Amino acid sequence: MSNFYTDNPDLKHHLGHPLMEKISALKERNYTDADKYDYAPVDFDDAMDSYEKVLEIVGELCGSTISDNAESVDHDGPRVVGGRVQYAAGTQQNLEACRKAGLMGMAMPRRLGGLNFPITPYIMAADIVSRADAGFENLWGLQDCAETIYEFANDDQRERFIPRVCNGETMSMDLTEPDAGSDLQSVMLKATEQPDGTWRLNGVKRFITNGDSDIHLVLARSEDGTKDGRGLSMFIYDKRDGGVTVRRIENKMGIKGSPTCELVFKNAKAELCGSRRLGLIKYVMALMNGARLGIAAQSVGISERAYREALAYAHDRRQFGKAIIEMPAVYEMLAVMKAKLDASRTLLYETARFVDIYKIYEDIARERSLTPDERAEMKHYSKLADALTPLVKGMGSEYCNQNAYDSIQIHGGSGFMKDYACERVYRDARITSIYEGTTQLQVVAAIRHVTTGTYINLMRHYKAQPCKNELKPMRDMLTSLVGLYEEAVTTVTSIKDAAYNDFMARRLVEMAGCIIMSYLLIEDANRNDKFTKSAEVYTKMAQAEVTKHSNFIRNFTPEQLAFYKPE
Asked: 188-207: per-residue pLDDT in tens?
């Protein structure tokens, strides 16, 4: 039996990042909670010990129960019985194990029953769970919907709903409809206010992950006569009040243990969360940012599993008298898989740390006024988190798919059979670049940080950090890539053609992502020699990718768009 935390020293490396000392002190309000709760940490070392112990529990559950159940859950899946979801037996066992271990509501405050964890170790837990079973992560990970209630609901709602999540009740976010996929402005589920101040919901939602959850966040149209995002509000629906039935569960390619539901709302009682009209404009945007970080963690966990399955098979499988891992064609694939995994993981935890700092400052601002320096720091990290979230979700999910593909390839014909876990991993990986905003939508979110200079400023910051002499040739090479990136940005932005700019956006974002992940891997290697190989492999890959995009942009004119347009 393996422990999925302790068997992966890369996780401890990222948990030990120097910025964690600041994050922990802010989250614990300089450890004053220790005066109120005997289990609260008294200092940084105590906090880190707490994070590690909980992650070890997560790792133990994932390395045994959740991973062991993954195959049967994938085979059996959930089903609809009398308008309700009935989980597969393995899923029920997983949920009960997590409840008993106290792994629900991890990031919620202690006063509401949570562990008061920063986002970073919570995302690390999501990474670990996803390695065990990506479908189960969709159920367990939806606990982060409680963050929306914590941030935007009133005190009464916080005190009624959040402790239930911390005690193990499940959540969902009900956004999508049959005629409103990525275009959430088109949501038409009707919300009607009642004389007693409650609301009634009527309509249909589709593609709702864990749609028969205990507590739902529902995007609905509250303003008569509106057709855009300004007429939408957020509501909390409690399953105990009834009025919502599950019409069907989608028959999906992967993540089959996670029920993706079509829901029918018939006069379902609900209550307004936050203010009217801000459902899409403010609350869903915050919800989606958290969800995208969660999918990035899921992508990294799946990448980890894909790499490990391929590595183990390559050691065991013999052809032509030797293990296939000794063949250059195979060990090159494995090296690139590991480099992509390490690159997406280092970007994941850099993003999580940025999210941590600005979110904690937002929470402190509910208790007292921030100083000018604190407010400036909050704004700084909020901007960085906003820039890196679409980057890590977009590129991390693409790398996840590539690693799952290569894992199958290394297995050869065996990988096409259900006898090997890589087949399930391959199917589970595919959704990561689609849901919570496709890769194409992540480019739309990221491109403004290309044009406003957020990414180039971050590159300059990383370049200024000290590094070992043996790493300097890699960093010097990145300087030339930054030059190509700046040239490409200037070329594209100087041409005032919207179609051309949109066409080139993906290339600019990928160039930025490759360079930033290269810098982060060099930082990792500077702290830990074990990352040097991945840094070398990835920066060479980045050099090829950035140069390719640079040449394409340099030799392309807006008139050539005609070749790509449909007949």
From this structure: 999 999 999 999 999 999 99
End-to-end CA distance of the chain: 57
Integer Cα distance of 191 and 193 in angstroms:
7
Give the span between the Cα atoms of 397 and 292, in whole angstroms: 10
Residue 393 lies in a domain: yes
**Residue 168, pLDDT above cutoff 80:** yes
**Contacts of 275 by beta carbon, 8 Å cutoff, 6+ apart:** 233
Beta strand 171-174 with 215-221: parallel, antiparallel or unpaired? parallel
pLDDT per residue over 507-548, tens digit each? 999 999 999 999 999 999 999 999 999 999 999 999 999 999
Q: Select from 161, 139, 108 the least CA-distant residue to 213.
A: 139
Task: For 528-540, give one letter per residue: b (16+ CB within 10 A) or e.
Answer: eeebbebbbbbbe
**Structural contact between residues 258 and 266, judged by C-beta atoms closer than 8 angstroms:** no
DSSP 177: B
Residue ending a domain, choose from 243, 277, 311 = 277
Q: How far apart are CA 387 and CA 398, in angstroms?
A: 18
Residues spanned by the domain of 47? 1-169
Q: Which residue type, as a one-letter code, is found at position 327? A: M
pLDDT band at 288 (very low <50, low <70, confident <90, very high): confident
Query: Are both 273 and 283 inside the same structural domain?
Result: no
